[in-house]
């Protein structure tokens, strides 16, 4: 599960804590769907875990609508006092457009967020710190791509892209300034 986590520092643009958008992979392409989580205001571990919990919960299989799990486009707003509310749209086996309202109760979000914080709280705190770093280039969108491992219930997330990006920056820094003989 690929997730692009973005920080929007101006919370006046949105009355919600976060938005979660899920876009399925294109047909015939062997790449996973992509989720975009936008946090508004200050990124902290608790708000980030709540938004990531909504991203996890929208991918839970639905026995009533099996077509929706693979091809649905989903949009949710996450409120700290209401839970997650939004909608999903997909085409069923006959090609008809199907839409459904989505509601994830606050209790479920808190339970999933608690599990995420228990399993990988340190990594979520590092992600929140990375988004909040003051030395992002001016005008750059604060966004970090993360990958959650296969989710059966909830498994330990793997944040390899964050680690590889940091390693690439370290290597680039060393290549740019490590000249022998200068």
Short characterization:
The protein has four helices and seven strands. It is α+β, with helices and mostly antiparallel strands. It has one domain.
Largest sheet: 7 strands, mixed
Segments where pLDDT lies below 50 for 5+ residues? 151-163, 172-179
Oligomer: single chain
Give the percentage of residues in beta strands: 25-35%
Number of domains: 1
Number of helices: 4
Distance between the termini: 46 Å
Task: Tell me about this structure.
The chain has one domain (2-177). With 182 residues, the protein is of the alpha+beta class. Strand 4 (73-79) and strand 5 (83-91) form a beta hairpin. Residues 151-163 and 172-179 have low confidence and may be disordered. The protein starts with a strand and ends in a 5-residue tail after the last helix. 34% of the residues lie in helices and 27% in strands. The longest helix has 27 residues, at 106-132. Helix 1 crosses helix 3.
Give the helices and strands, then pairings.
Elements lengths: L1 E7 L9 E6 L10 E7 L4 H13 L10 H4 L1 E7 L3 E9 L5 E8 L1 H27 L9 E6 L12 H18 L5
Parallel strand pairs: 1-3
Antiparallel strand pairs: 1-7, 2-3, 2-4, 4-5, 5-6
Helix pairs in contact: 1-3
Write out key terms for the chains shown.
182 residues, alpha+beta, seven-stranded mixed β-sheet, 4 helices, 7 strands
